Amino acid sequence: MCCLCNTKRAMCLLTCGQSIWVCLQEIMKWNGWGYSDSKFLYNKKGQAEFTGKRYRLSGMIIPGLREWMESTFGANLQHKTPAAPILNSSAVQPPTLNEAFLKELKSTGIPFSHDAEDRVFRSHGHCLHEIFALREGKIGRVPDLVVWPNCHNDVVKIVELACKHNVCLMPYGGGTSVSSALECPPEETRSIVSLDTSQMNRILWIDEKNLTAHVEAGIVGQDLERLLNESGYCTGHEPDSMEFSSLGGWVATRASGMKKNIYGNIEDLVVHIKMVTPQGVIEKSCQGPRMSTGPDVHHFIMGSEGTLGVVTEVTMKIRPMPEYQKYGSVVFPNFEMGVACLREVARQRCAPASIRLMDNEQFKFGHALKPQVSSIFTSFLDGLKKFYITKFKGFDPNRLCVATLLFEGDREKVLQHEKQVYDIAAKFGGLAAGEDNGQRGYMLTFVIAYLRDLGMDYYVIGESFETSVPWDRVLDICRNVKARIVRECKDKGVQFPPLSTCRVTQTYDAGACVYFYFAFNYRGLSDPVHVYEQVEHAAREEILANGGSLSHHHGVGKLRKEWMRETISSVGMGMLRSVKDYVDPNNIFGNRNLL
Amino acid sequence: MLWSYCHSGTRKSLFNINTRELSEVVVIGSTASLKDEEEFTDILEERRCTTDLGYALRTFNPQPYKGAPSSSTSDLKKAVLESQYLRYIIALETGSSVEKVRQEARGILEEMSHNLQLGFIRLMAYTVNKVFKRLFRSIYVNMEGLNMLQQAIQESPVILMPNHRSYVDFLIVSFILFTYDIPIPVIAAGIPLASMKVVGEILRRSGAFFIRRAIGSDKLYWAVLSEYVRTIVRTGCAPLEFYVEGFRSRTLKSVVPKLGMMDMVLEPYFKGEVFDITLVPISISYDRVVEESLLALELLGVPKPKESTTGLFKASRVLQEDYGCMHVNFGRPLSVRQLCEGKINRSEYNLIPRDLPQRPSTEIQDCVNWVAHLIVRTQEEGSLISPWSLMACLLLQAPITTLTEEGLQWHGLTEKTLWLRKLVLDFRGRLNWPDSDVMSSTVALHHSIVHHKAGRVCLVQDGDPASQDPLSPEEGVMRTAAAVLMLVSYRNQALHVFVRPGILATAIHITKSTQKDELFSFFCFLRDVFANEFIFIPGRASQDFDEACSLLQKCGAVHMSEQEVTVLETGLEVLSFLQKLLQPFLDSYQLIFRYLCENGAHVFTEKQFLPAVQNLATKLILSGDLHTFEVLSSDTQKNVLSALRRLEAVTKLRVNNNILSIADPYFFGKYIAIDVLLMTEIMNKRAL
User: Fold this and answer.
1) What element of type H or E holds A271?
2) Which one is predicted more confidently, B249 or A476?
3) What quaternary structure, including any partners, is listed in this protein's UniProt entry (chain A) (predicted)?
4) Helix, strand or coil for residue B132?
5) Between B64 and A319, residue with greater pLDDT
6) Which of A123, A231, B185, B492 has the fewest beta carbons under 10 Å from its own?
7) A319 annotated as ligand-binding
8) Is residue B639 exposed (0-12), middle (13-18) or buried (19+ Cβ within 10 Å)?
9) In a 3-state reduction of DSSP, which class is residue B139?
10) Treating both helix axes as pointing N-terminal to C-terminal, what angle do B438-445 and B387-395 enclose, rounded to 10 degrees?
C-alpha cells in the first residue's frame, strides 16, 4: 500500500503537528474516480446501486439507471469490460533517480518515495485516456520520485535542490486535472519529481477584521470549507471537484466555483499568493484589496499550470456562513426558452448563488438517477407532477429542460430573490419544479464522475469538457457542438448513437459557461480511446469555430496546447514564453503545460 | 440499439462521403449511364391513371426539418423586420426618419415575401399536372435522389438548386415534392413574375418570393433580401429553391454562377447559426424546350416579351405541341460543412457581433465561388444528353450551305450520331437514349428546326412564306442565324461532356506540340480565356487537364506517357470533332478581340458595342470570311466582355452608364492576337 502511509505516517504525524490529515491515496481508487468505497454497480438482481456511505445517494438502489444506460448507449449487462483489479508493479518502469539530488533531499528530512504505486498515483489526472489506460493496466512514463513537503520552506529547499541538480519538478495537488496536465512528458529524460502538496494543508490564520484566511496551498476544498465552517466562515468556492482538488491547483488553473455569482471565481477570491520559483519566491508586499502597480503579477501565477513554480500559501477572502440556503428548480418547455431566461437573469444581474440549465438529455439522465422512492405517496406525487407538466401544461417530454437553482443569504432576502427569479422564469414559460429536483441536480455533480467508472465497466466511455461563450452564441454552440459530436461518432464508425448533451453552468454579464458531456458505447471499435480523442478534438474545433473559448476553467494542460497560439495570438504566446524563460530558464518546472 | 437513422442505407452514404471522394465525384462524374436510366421513374404515368382533382386533393403530410419550429409567413416577416441586423441597417440609413425607413423596409418585404399556402399548392399541382400531361410524354424523376432528399430535409436546412432552362421548370420541383410528400420549397423568382396579374399572386402563394433585377447599391433592399433569405435558411422553415445561375439560360448552356444568393444562403453556416446546410443540385433536361424559338430571337437582339398574364395565355398555343420527355435528376445532397472543410476558418466572425454587416474575407468569398461552380458542374453532370443534342453537334459541323440548301445525308448523320454516342459514353456522359427508333423520332420531335425528307436533313428557316419580297442579304443572315442558334442551343446541352477534352484537342491542334507541360500551359490559357463560357471549378486546372488527358486516352485518341501526349491515327476523328466543336467559340472571341483592337476607340458603351459587333460579323459572314453565326448571339458578346473584364483588359468605368474602356491597350493587344500562331507565342511569353 501507500508507502508514505504505512512507513512514514508516524513521522508525518509528528512533523504535521495538527492533524486533520488523511492519506487520500489510501482511501481513493487508483484507477477511477473518488473514494474506493463509493461506486456504482449492478447488484445480483441487476439493479444499479451506489455503494458506501459518503453521499446522499450512497446505499441506494437506482431503479431507472439500467434502463437508461441500455436505451441511451445500447449497453448490456452481459457485455462487461472490467478493469485490472490491482496495479501490477512490474508494469511500472523503474525510476530514473538523480542520486546527488536524492542524497541531498534525504539530508533535509523531507519525506519522499519511489514506490511504484505512489508514483503511478501521481502520474495522471482524470482524462479518459489516462483512466482507460490504468484500467487496462497500461502504465506510461510516471514520476520517478514523489516528495511530500510539509511547508513553504520545504518547498523552497526542494526547488533549490532541483535547480542545483537539474531535476524536473511537477507540482501535484488533488490530481483532478482533466487537461493531461499531470502527464509526464515522454520526451523528458531528467528525473521527474512529483511534488505532492497534500501535507501543506493547514489554515495558518484567520483574519476576522478583514475577512481573510491564510491557507497552505495543499489543502483540498472540502477540508478548507469544513475547517472554516468550524469558525463560522466559508470561502464559498465550490468547484465540482472540491472533494479532492486543492487550493494550489485552483490557483494554478484559474478555477471557477459553482457559487461564483456570490463569492467570485478564484481570481476574485485571492488576496495574496506566495509561489516558489527557480528564481526565488514571488509575493506582493501588502494585502491591499486592489492595486495599480502595473500588470497584476498574480495573473502570471493564476493559470500558470505548474510551469513557473509551486504555490505554497494563499490569502483568500472568507465570508460568514450563509444563514439560509434554498435549492430550487424550474422546468422550461425547451432549451431555447431556458437559455433566454438565464440571459434575462444575467441582464438583470440577479443570478442566484448558482443557476444551471440542463438540456433535455441531461434532464432525462437526472431522472434516471432518482433513487428508489420509499413511499407510495412520493411516487404518487411524482406521477402527478409529471402529469401536470406534460399533459396539463403541454410540455413535450422530449424537449423540456430544467434549471437548477441555489439561493444563499439571509432568509428574507433569499425568499425575495427566489420570487424575483421565478417571476423572470415564468415569463419564459418556466414552471417551478420544486426544491428536491434542484438539490438532486447538484448532488449529481458529485456522483456523475463515479458514473463514468460504471460506464467503463460496460463498454461506455465518455467525458465532459467546457467552454465560455458570448450570450448570443450560446444556443448555436450548444446545438452545433452536440451535432458535431454525433456526426463525428458516426463518421468514426461508432456503432451506437452517442450521448451528447450540455448544460449552461455559469452566467456572466457578457456570456455563459457551457459544459458538454459526451459518451458512447465503444463495442466494435478497435481503438476506442483514439476515436474518443478524435471526436473530442473535433468538438473543440467546433467550439472555437463557434466563438467559444478554449477553456473556461479546466485549463489548457497538454490536451489543448495546440490551440493556444490562435487563442492568445503569437504576441501573447511570446509574452508568456518570456515570463517562463525568465522565471524558469532551465525548465525545472517541466510539465510542459500551456505553452 | 443501433443508430436510429441507419435504417435507410442511402442515409449513410449521404454524409459518409468525404471531400476527397466528393472531388472524385466531380471529376469522374456519373457512373454507367445505362444503369442510371433504369432508376428514373415516369411520374406522369401514374398521373394519367388518376383524376387531376383527386391528385390535387391528396393528403399531404410531409416530414419537415426536425429543428424547424412551425412558423407562418407572418412570423417570418416579423422575424426579418425585427432582426438586429435590419435594425442596425435602418439606423445607418440617414436622410429620413427611422420610422420612414422602417416603413420602406416593410414595403420591400411585402413586395418580396412568399405566402406559401397549401391550398394554392393544390391549385398549382392541379394546373401544372394538367399542363404537363399535355406538354410532355413523360417526366422522369430519379427516385433514389428523391429518397435522399427526403432524408436530408429532416436533418438540416435544404437548398434546392436546379438549373433553369425553361419557364416550365419554375414549379416542377414543387410539383414533384408535392407528389412525394416532401415539404414544398420557397422559390426565389425575378420580380417581373410578381407583376403578372393573378398569376403573380398564385406563384407567391405557391411559395415564390420575388427579387428585383437591378438592386445595385440599394443597401436597404440588399439588407431586407439577405435577412429574409438567411432567416429562411436559419429557421429551416421550408426548403429554399433558387437558381444559382441567376437566370434562365437562353443558350441552354450552363451560366457562370451568380454569387449574391449563394452568399446569403451559406452565411448562416459560416456564422454558426446552423450546424450544416444541405445543397441539392437538380438537373433538369428537356428533349425539347418550350420556348426554343423565342430564345434564339432574344439572343439575336429581338427583345423578349414582357412576362404578362395575357402573354401567358397567348403562349397557350404551345400546348398543342409535343415536347417529348423531361428528366429531373435530383443530385446527391451535399453537406456545406463537408464542402467547406479546410477551406475556411469560421472564427473570423468571432470578434464582431454576427448581426452586424461584415464584409466576408477573400477566403470566404473564394469558397462561396467554388461551391457555386461546383454546384453548376454537378448540375451539368447530372443532366441527360439527348440524341438530338448529339445530332446538333454534328449538324453544326456541316457547312452552312449544305444545311440550308441541299441538306445533310440522313444515313451519314445517323451513323455519325451513333459514333458520337459511343464517345459520350467513353466520356462518362449521361445519355437519354430511348430504345426504339431514336433517330427519326428525334428529328420528328424537332420538326421546327430540321426537316427530314428524301434521305436528307435540312435546316428549317423561319420566314413568312406569304411575303414575296426577297430578303436583303443581312436579313437572310439573321434568318439563318435564328435557325442555327436554335441548333446551337441543343448542341450546348451536350457541351459540358466535351469541353475539357475539347480544349485539350484544340491545344494539340494549335500548338502542334506533344509536350505535356506545353499542352498544359496552353490548356490553362484557353481555360482561362473561356472561363465565362464554360464552367470550370476554380483552382482545378490540373485536375481538368488530367481529366481531359485520361478521357482522350480512354477513347483511343491519344497515347500518354510521363512527358508526352501523342496523337494516334485512330484518334484523328475524335480530335477533329472536338476541335471543330470548339472552333465557333475561338472564332467568335477572335472576331470580337479584333473588332475592339481595330476599332481604335478606347472607350465605348455596351450599347454601341453589341450592334457594331453584329454588323461586322454579318459582313464577314456574307463575305465568307467568318464561318460561325454564334458571334451574332448577344450571349457570346457579353461573355467576351465579361472575360475581358475579368482578365483586366477592359474595365467598366461607370456602372450606371455601362461605359467600358480598354484598360491596358498593350495587354489587350496581346489578347487580340488570339490568332493561332500568335497565341502560342503569348503562351511562351507567359510561361517565361
Assistant:
1) strand A270-277
2) A476
3) Homodimer.
4) helix
5) A319
6) A231
7) no
8) buried
9) strand
10) 80
Residues 6+ apart with CB under 8 A from B535: B254, B256, B373, B376, B377, B380, B496
Please report which confidence band the pLDDT of residue B19 belongs to, taking 50, 70 and 90 as the band edges.
very low
Q: What is the pLDDT of residue B57?
A: 85
Residue B330, classified by CB atoms within 10 Å of its CB into exposed (0-12), middle (13-18) or buried (19+), is buried
* Grid cell listed for B84: 438586429
Pairing between β-strand B408-409 and β-strand B456-459 as defined by DSSP bridges: antiparallel
* Confidence (pLDDT) at B551: 95
> By the CB < 8 Å criterion, does A510 face chain B?
no
In chain A, residues with a C-beta closer than 8 Å to the C-beta of B345 are: 545
Asked if A473's CB is within 8 angstroms of B272's CB, the reply is: yes
Q: Tell which B residues from 12 to 41 touch A, by Cβ distance under 8 Å.
A: 15-16
Q: Look at residue A323 and give its three-state secondary structure.
A: coil
Please tell me the distance in Å from B540's CA to the nearest CA on chain A.
27
Residue B334 has pLDDT above 80, yes or no: yes
pLDDT in tens, A242-293: 999 999 999 999 999 999 999 999 999 999 999 999 999 999 999 999 999 9
Distance from CA of B15 to the nearest CA of A (A): 8
- Name the band, by pLDDT with cuts 50, 70 and 90, for residue A447: confident
The CB-side HSE value for A327 (13 A sphere, CA atoms) comes to 15
* B362 pLDDT more than 90: yes
Is B8's Cβ below 8 Å from some Cβ in A? no
- Is residue A459 annotated as a catalytic residue, yes or no? no
Closest-approach residue (CA) in chain B for A489? B3
Give the residue from A479, A514, A566 with the most B CB atoms within 10 Å of its CB, the best one to mutate.
Answer: A479
ipTM of the complex: 0.90
Instruction: Name the β-bridge partners of A196.
Output: A172
> With contact defined as beta carbons under 8 Å apart, do B360 and B316 qualify?
no
Q: What is the DSSP letter of B229?
A: H
What are A444's three cell numbers? 449529481
How many beta-carbon contacts under 8 Å exist across A and B? 45
DSSP state of B321: S
- Confidence band of B31 (pLDDT split at 50, 70, 90): very low
Determine contact: B454 vs chain A, CB below 8 A: no
Question: Rounded mean pLDDT of B211-227?
Answer: 88
Whole-number average pLDDT of chain B: 84
Share of residues in chain B with pLDDT > 70 (%): 84
Q: B274: distance to nearest CA of chain A, Å?
A: 7
The Cα–Cα gap between B494 and B375 comes to: 17
CB-CB neighbors (< 8 A) of B1 in chain A: 70-71, 74, 496-497
Q: What is the DSSP letter of A392?
A: I
Q: Is A368 annotated as a binding residue?
A: no
Facing A496 at nearest CB: one of B2, B353, B354: B2
Residue B209 has pLDDT above 90, yes or no: yes
Q: Which one of B3, B67, B272 has the shortest CB-CB distance to A497?
A: B3
**What distance in Å separates the CA atoms of residue B517 and residue B562, rounded to the nearest whole number?**
10
What's the whole-model pTM score? Answer: 0.89
For A78, counting Cβ atoms within 10 Å of its Cβ (0-12 exposed, 13-18 middle, 19+ buried), the class is exposed
**Residue tagged active-site, from A263, A450, A515, A522:** A515
Neighbours of B176 (CB within 10 A): 20
Asked whether residue A177 is marked as a ligand-binding residue, the answer is yes
SS3 B606: helix
